[in-house]
Amino acid sequence: MQRFRFLPLIMVVALVLAACGGAPAASPGNEYGSGGATPEPTAAPAATQPAQSDGLEVDRTKLSTELRFFNWTDYVDPSILEDFEKEYGVKVIVDLFDANEDMIAKVRAGRSGYDIVTPSDYAVETMWREGLLAKLDKAMLPNLKHIDPGLLDKYFDPGNVYSVPYLYGITGIAYNKQNFPDGVDSWAALFDTAQIEKYSGQFSMLDDERESPGAALKYLGYSLNETDPAALKKAQDLLIAQKPFLAAYNSSDVNRKLASGEYVIAHAWSGSAMQARSGLGDEFSGNPDIAFVIPKEGGMIWMDNMVILADSPNAYTAHVFMNFMLRPDIAARNAEYVGYLTPNKDGEQLLPQDVIALYKEGFAPNEEVLKRLEWAVRNEQTVAFTDVWTAVKGE
Ligand code: SPD
């Protein structure tokens, strides 16, 4: 099985791009703020079963009967949750979100009842700085050893005090080859009014305050982390000019609408595009004409991460679930199902050849594409993206 060998390079490129395109927030050193919840037992033990999971001694008397997982839409293989329930007697209840900011607002309000959440990189930092996250008990996460070291200890959570990698991906343009027989290579396909008037009402942009302004900034030649007011005003104007031609801002079912042909082109996450291409379990069928590209001006690379909330009612069980999701076979099954990239280096080796072939077609970055990708950072200035997005959405 061929193993993708670009992951260490991702780290190098990411650090260079972060340095060029907007400095990551100052390292927190040892001051990680509050939020270290001590895992607590919450419910009756499950049935007796082997209490061993890849080196983790699970005390079943500490397991809760339910775990609440707040996750992105179409972002977990449901059969994996069934397997977790079979093995541990814990039912995983999933609620969905489609934007980091919506998720944080719900968690910030308090007593959400959620145990595990999957914020993206910059959003992890927002959350730990606000004391919303529990410190992880690494002794309960022996399967962390399967994660690519190049995707640990990243700028948004030095030392992985609060987060472990879940899935990662890239943001670019998904399109239907029937409608674009010559391919697509520029954000102009989504922003140039001379082009988009031809497919007015048949394309979408992500409903996301970092993604859509970020794409506009890249088209204009800036870093997607640029917060200079003049640059942001240009990006805002570009998005407002595009708006009359859009079918929708959409982060929830771009996959389905591309697959069905309702959209001919879309601003999309790589896995969502892969779902449009290959289908998603029993949910919907794929469309072989869907392709994905990172435009020549560049795009975003990002990683979503499992975190435990500071007010998680079931932190012990949440650790057991995290360690389960970090098993290579589980990580590979999940990545194959959702079409995103696994940070699990041992799981990656288990992926089937048809998935690897699609990665090579553009649904994963190669070395050339990696040079055009940038991570989103959070700093004191990035709150400006909320204002831009409010202005664009309010128009
Ligand atoms: N449908 C799952 C989408 C996951 C996207 N998360 C990453 C967002 C980065 N801005």
Tell me the layout of helices and strands.
Layout: H1 7-21, E1 52-53, E2 56-57, E3 66-72, H2 78-88, E4 91-97, H3 100-108, E5 116-117, H4 121-129, E6 163-176, H5 188-191, H6 193-196, E7 203-205, H7 211-219, H8 229-242, E8 248-249, H9 254-260, E9 265-269, H10 270-278, E10 279-280, E11 284-285, E12 290-293, E13 299-308, H11 315-325, H12 328-338, H13 345-348, H14 353-363, H15 367-370, E14 373-374, H16 384-394
Parallel strand pairs: 3-4, 3-5, 7-8, 7-9, 13-14
Antiparallel strand pairs: 1-2, 5-13, 6-9, 6-12, 6-13, 10-11
The chain binds spermidine.
Describe this structure in words.
With about 400 residues, the protein is of the alpha/beta class. The protein folds into two domains: about 5-170 and about 300-370, D-Maltodextrin-Binding Protein, domain 2, CATH 3.40.190; about 170-300 and about 375-395, Periplasmic binding protein-like II (D-Maltodextrin-Binding Protein, domain 2), CATH 3.40.190. About 35% of the residues lie in helices and about 15% in strands. It has 16 helices and 14 strands. The strands form three sheets. Strands 3, 4, 5, 6, 7, 8, 9, 12, 13 and 14 form a ten-stranded mixed sheet that branches. A two-stranded antiparallel ribbon has the order 1-2. A two-stranded antiparallel ribbon has the order 10-11. β3 (about 65-70), α2 (about 80-90) and β4 form a beta-alpha-beta unit. α8 packs parallel to α16 and α9 packs parallel to α10. The protein starts with 6 loop residues before the first helix and ends with a helix. About 50% of the residues are buried. Mean pLDDT is about 90; it is low at about 1-50. The structure holds spermidine (SPD). Spermidine binds next to β13.
